[in-house]
Amino acid sequence: MSGLAYRMPRPWALSGVAALALMPAPAHAQNATPREAALEARLKMLEQAVVDLRAELAERRGTAATAPASPPPVQAAQTPSARAPSTPSQPALVAVASGPTREAANPQVANSGIAGRPTANSAATGTATASNDGFRMGNTTVKLGGFVRLNVIGSRYSDGEVAVGGLGKEFFLPQQIPVGGGFSSQDLLFSARQTRLVFSTATPVNGIEAKTLVEFDFALATAPVGAQRATNPYVPTFRRGFIEYGNLLVGQEWSTFQNLGVLPETTDFVGPLDGTVFNRQALIRYTIPLRPGLSLQVAAENANTQTALPTNPALVDTDDDRLPDMVARINWKASLGEFALAGVAREIRTDTLGVGHSTFGWGLSGSGKIPIGRRNDLRFMATYGQGIGRYLGLGYVPDAIFGGPVQRLARIDNFAGFAALKIGWTDTIRSTFMGSYQSAEYPDGIAVTGLANAKSYGGAANLFWSPGKGFDIGVEYRHAVRELLSGDTGALDRLEFAFKFGF
Questions:
Q1: Domain total for the chain?
Q2: Full-model pTM
Q3: Range name among 34-43, 310-319, 440-449 with the lowest pLDDT average
Q4: Which of 148-157 are b and which e, b meaning 16 or more Cβ less than 10 Å from the residue's Cβ?
Q5: Please, which of 136, 188, 212, 303 could form a disulfide with 321 given CB 3.0 to 4.6 Å?
């Protein structure tokens, strides 16, 4: 009888439970006959089976219900192995309410970190599980993030005015500070073009996460004529897009020569632009962990030679490069702070009427961030090299001058640096004080026009307040000077407000 019950189909077993539940229980177990004792034993087995059924049904329905401590009396015979029918599987898409953190939406975020990775369990089974942020599609974690930002910029130029639509109106671009205009000018601009959108994914592949990121904003697109007249339309511009698999990264990302983590907080698009390495480009990069807190990155990156003629300071992209720029960087994180030392080696080349000219360019850059107490830190960067103009200040000076008595490519020596002190007044209010500098030394033996850029320097101070998660409100004053090779100078004084919400 017991063996038959164990082989009984589930629908019949459940029917038996209902029928036998109507049978009366023995009144006095101590006087039970052998048959009644057997029935009593089967009753206890049935009660346990009901407990198992309820627990399994609750689990399948996702209610996390548990079996009751004292099941209601059931007076029927059944085996403990009975199971409820299977329920439909859960949907493959699980949405999660929270989004990327404020740090992930910040443009000064570290290179390629993508939060919200699948758990080990979900990676192994391929099932949809909730993560801290993002949502799941199959076994891929998908996240949308970014921020909406408004900048209000009031500028005064000491010696001329910036051309209509010039990017120097919207962020600090030292090469667009007017010099030689003979008059001062003022400009007021409201702009939301720095609004940014970020899309990222993470998918387990052979036990390793394959991650992707695509990022757009509207800041660097050339404004169409009359854009501010009515609708202010701006075309999205591609910032970053890469694939990261283990220690390998391929795609467009911040150059390995740049340490993005030391850029200070600012209302400006970059801040101390003339004193910092600033470059995004296509690359292939591999990271080698050496020991805890120490790693080496090596990369082959897109090459682009930027030249100028001795009589004309306008930059020319020759697009005749044959070899990638080779970059290496050591990253060290210790109790004292975070530091990086980067080097770049590159061929500078131009091809004129079928005749090629080339020279060797190189650069070294050291940077760091040193915490001072709980809320404060000191950030810095110093860079020197020959033929690395396009890596500094968005090309404040070219890589080389092409010309001279003997037509040749002659490298330009560059030095650039900045320092920034952050002070946290409270947990939500903070300031940053920064200064930056860049100088160029042109090659001997070539008469270069006095209109070429020679130096740029300046400083800024700001105050930021974060009234709630994701919100940042800031005000900043900046003074900067552009100096030409002739010695002529022009100055910029700017007061800027920024309102940002990251999501």
A1: 2
A2: 0.72
A3: 34-43
A4: ebebebebeb
A5: 303
